[in-house]
Structures are given as C-alpha cells and as structure tokens.
C-alpha cells in the first residue's frame, strides 16, 4: 500500500506535464471503454427487441370454446417497413388475457395503435382505411419491439373473424417469429464487430497505458537504484496506470450512458431501441471496471520489466535489445491457415465452414491480426537497420537510427493505422458475404399490387415513382365452368400487358419481341406455358368506363419471344405478352395486378417502397421473392456493421493521435539537441516523417496483403458466389494512401518552432 501511495505522490507531484499525461491516459481510456460498452450492449438491445416481440405473440388454436376470443394477424408492407395489424373479437368464454402494452382488449370499433401509427394517422390520413374504427389508446413500450414500430390492435365483431379467426389461448412465445437479426447472420455480425472494434480496442488501451513510457521508466529506475524492491517498483508504476485506467473506465461508462440516451432517442438507420434496452448490465460494468485496470496492470508490469531488471541501463539510456524473432510465429501461423483455405478455392474444391473449419477460419483471422501487430517492431527494426547501413542520406540515416534504437516507440504510433487497414479489408468480406445471403440473386426486384385496390390516377402515378424502371400488368384469364363455346378450353393463362421495352427491363435477355403484336413468352429454363397450343383462346374480363363487364378472347399466337428471366421474378408466371394497344380503351381487367420493376439494391428497394406508400398508402404490396422482414434485417445488419466500422475508425485515429502527442512530448529533448547541433527545421521534419512513414508503409503493405487473404478465406468458406474481392482492392489502396498522408501530416508537430535549451541541460 505504501508503494501505491508513493506512486500517487510522484504522479501528482512531478509537475504539470505528468499530470497532463495522466489525464490524457484517462480520457483516452474512456473513449475505449465507451466503445467497449457499446459493443457489449448491442446483443442485449437485440435480445430486448426479440423478447418483447415474442411476449406479445398470440397463442391460438383452431379449436376452442364457441364463445372464445378470436384473433387474426395481418403483416403488410407500408413503404419499406412492416405494418402489423391484429384484429381481435373479444368473447365471453375462455381465458381473458391482455397483450403486453394494453390494459384491455379493444372493443368493436376501437383501435389501439403504436406511437408511430398515431403520428402517421395525422400525417397520412389514407392509413385510416387500414384501421377501421376510432383510436382508443396508444400501445405501451412493453408491447412494441422498438419505438418506431408500426403496430395496431383493431377491435371487431365475431362475425367478421368467423372464417379466418383463431381462438385465443394466451400471449407469449418462447421465441420471436421475426427476430431483429437471424441467428446465423448474428454470428457473422458478432464476429465482424469483434474484429472491427475489440482487436483495435485492445491496442488502443495498451497505447494509453504506455503513455510517457520513457519518462516513467527513468523515474522507476531511479527508485530502483535508491533501494526499492522489484515488486515495490512495479506497484509504484501500477499506481499511475491502474488509477488512470480505473478513472477512464468510470468516465467511459458515463460517456456511454449519455451516448445511449442520445442514440436511443435519435435512432440509427433501421435500428431503434428504448433507453432501457441499452442500460449497462452488471456483466458489462464488471468487464469495464475490472478488465481495463487489469489490462493496464499487465501492460505496466511488462513495460517496467527493463527498469526493474537493469535500472542503470535505463538511467544511462543504453541501447535496448532487438525485438524477439519468435513473435513472427503468430503471423506465420495465421497466414498459413488463411492461405490453406485460399488454396482450396484455387484448386476448385472450396472448404466449407462446417465443423472444425469454422474455428480455424476465426483462429486464422485473429492470429494474422495479432501476429501483424506483434511483428511490427521486428519489421521496423529490420527495415531501419538495413536502410541505415546502406543509405547515404543524412535524413534517412537519422530517422532509421532512431527507429533502430526504439522500435517499440514506432510500433505504438503506426500499429493502430496498420490494424485499421487490415480490419477494413476483412469488413469488406463480411459485407459481401451478408449481401449474398440476404439480397435477392437477380438484378431486378418486382413489386405486385392488386389493380382492384388502385384508382386510375394512382396507377398512373405509380409509373412515375423514383426507382421504377418498368411497369406492366399481369392479368389472369377467366374460366367459365358452364361454357359450351367451341375453341375455349377449361384452363387459365396469365398475360403480361406491356411493351417490348418493359419486357427487356424486367428480364436478363429477350429475342424476337415485336411491339404491337400478341406473342407467346418462352423461357428455355422454365416449363411455364409449354402445354399451350397455338390457336387456343383464353377469355379475359374487363370493366369499361361505364362500369359494364366485357370480355375479350385472346388466342395463343404462333409468334413467340424467347427470354431469360431473373430468379424469383413475376414475369416467369406469364405465358403471353399482350401490347397495351390490344386492350379496349379505358378498360380495366377484373383479375389483374400492377407489376413494377426496379433495381434489387436494398437502398433502391426501400426508396421504391416509400414512393409506393406515398401514392397508395393502403395498397397491399407484395415484394416478389423478398419479404419485408428480410429487408428490415438487412437494414439492421448494415447499420451494425457501419457502427462497428465507425467505432474502429474512431479508435484507430484516437490511438494514432494519442501516440503522436506522447511521442512529441517524449522526444522534445532529442529534437532540441539535434537542432542545436545545426540541423535545420526542414531536415528535422523530414526525419520525423521518415521515422513514421517508412515502417508504416511496410506495415500497410503487409496489412493489405494479409487482409485480402483473410477476406478471401472467409468468403471461400462462406460458400457464396464471390470468393475473390478484386473490386475492393482500389478502395483499400486509396485508403492506404490516405493513411500514409495522414501519418505524414501527424508527424509534423514533433518538431516545435521554439527551441528550449533547458530540455537538454541534464544530457
């Protein structure tokens, strides 16, 4: 305890510079702890979302009391979001349970809505058509997965639900029917967040714990020479680092609390939560308050090893031992694993992610990243020694001799930036893998809306929605079971009403299309329409402008258009292509759907859905080949990964700034001494830039190569169509150049404008 108190006295009594460095350690540690708390709380936010969604789920049965409560749930798309309506017909028998968030079941004509629907009813009155009845209350937070959810309970009578309604037995499932993120996808997200945030975070906290290392080591060596024991000297050193880490942990938890309150109310794209969902758990608090000081203790114990073992060499600034070569085994082990997986892809027999391969992929990525960090001092030492021996430049000689003497100092400056490039490469692979799993395989996304629910003006306005590149009608023929007319068979056909240009925009390839003629649609990869005979007539019913029913017989022509369709496209269900000019003027088919087509990019899909909702807010939209819950999950996953990349960027830049600031303070005496000898300021700036840029460039090249190998091994074992991300190389190269430029600019403050001889009076 005496050594601990002595460390505190030395800290606060050793001048303003030491106190500033102590507060810098605490503030830097708080940023890291805040990011750590955010990463640890993300799973809790998702679990709270799924828990409330499961608790409100109605448990129903096809059989029950004759007078039991009936429920019917409808999940529709409103724009790019899911709109859930639960119709309830309260009975007099059976259990009388109430869902979470409500105090009572709605009576016939009453509607309980979520706060977002409450606002929507005022901004978009057309939504009232979806909710027959008067608004009787608002659903509480316990009954909503997140604050922005579109959810409503609609009270109705038993006669309305007699056919489709099911008897209510209670509320509460053990699982969420539509989780915020699928478990398999969540595993990839957790792995990505751990790589994006936790690995740079450990480096950042280690950097903060080793601020002003040289000054502290000289102070500890002096205490050791005065007779203090080895353990006592380590306790003195731990007093500063552990107290700074503990203060930083407390500040970081406070910063996270403020950040959670702000982000919960402002929300992120596709992800909203209540402040209580992101509350700090006991485990998170324990990890931050215990884990960070323990890490600081381990770092300080290792950094004080030289001062306690050979204090005289530290006081006389002896040349340190070169870095150990054994640390390179970690990097070689990681590269060996990822290169092995890449080799399986090159040989045409890609390894799967099943069994032990799943662990090997993670181990290879982590070992490569950790090995890259630990090998940087050795690489910096080897590069500096070789360049210093062969160069004839005074600038390079000065720069490399300093890096040769202190390779660990260079590592603390460049490690965060090197790791940032490595993690960015891996993040590209995770995004590509998730896109292959969650996005539609085709380049076109189709939207189907019943024509009967649209007015003529709405139908015309839908064609002008931004993002819609083609529009058509899908109409079904009518079958009259009592007909005796010759030439008409008792079978149905689906016709696509549109032009050849519309067909080309909805398909991958067309051949033989002629505008103004009825043609057969033939897809060589599909059997749809293969049993149709030329001359067979199919009747289609219409309603003219006066409201009268009419019928039009369309025979199967001999001419045909051969096309290649996208998987999951609605065009694949059509057998005939009918030009709009073949229909009666002003006629509206009785059994038809409006078909819109646009790009399959999730951002474009959301924009088109929002545009459709603005034109026809109560129309039933079918996303062909894609459900709205899947689209929402894509948005959540992209938001989480973007959040992880932002945190990784913040941590990496913060580590660089902290290291550069500390390096500038530590080397003032050395820079002053060389300047007084006669070196010009321009030469010193070039020296400081070379000290950072050369080892950083070597590390970045290695990070770029190892990162692409790790990304490829992840993509190969993922089983997707994309295994080699060549498109991402230019972006990474550009990011690497930007990192080098930032490092060069950041090294300029190491040379001050004012020369103070007092800094070297003891040297």
E-strand count = 19
Mean pLDDT: 76
Unreliable residue stretches = none
Measured between the Cα atoms of the first and last residue, the distance is: 34 Å
**Given the C-alpha coordinates, what overall shape results?**
elongated
Helicity range of the residues?
Answer: 40-55%
Strands in their spatial order, largest beta sheet? 11-15-12-16-10-9-18-8-19
**Count the helices. How many?**
20
Beta-strand share of residues: 5-15%
Structural class: alpha+beta
Largest sheet: 9 strands, mixed
Compute the gyration radius: what is it? 34 Å
Topology, element by element:
Layout: H1 2-13, H2 16-55, E1 58-61, E2 70-78, E3 81-89, E4 110-113, H3 115-123, E5 134-138, E6 150-155, E7 166-171, H4 183-209, H5 213-225, H6 230-266, H7 282-303, H8 305-309, H9 311-315, H10 328-346, H11 356-390, H12 394-405, H13 407-438, E8 444-450, H14 456-462, E9 468-476, E10 494-497, H15 500-506, E11 509-511, E12 519-522, E13 537-543, E14 549-555, E15 560-564, E16 576-578, E17 588-589, E18 592-599, H16 602-615, E19 622-623, H17 628-666, H18 668-677, H19 681-718, H20 729-746
Parallel strand pairs: 3-6, 4-5, 10-16, 12-15
Antiparallel strand pairs: 1-7, 2-3, 2-7, 4-6, 8-18, 8-19, 9-10, 9-18, 11-15, 12-16, 13-14, 13-17
Helix pairs in contact: 1-6, 2-4, 2-6, 2-7, 2-17, 4-13, 4-17, 5-6, 6-7, 10-11, 10-19, 11-12, 11-13, 11-19, 12-13, 12-19, 13-17, 13-19, 13-20, 19-20
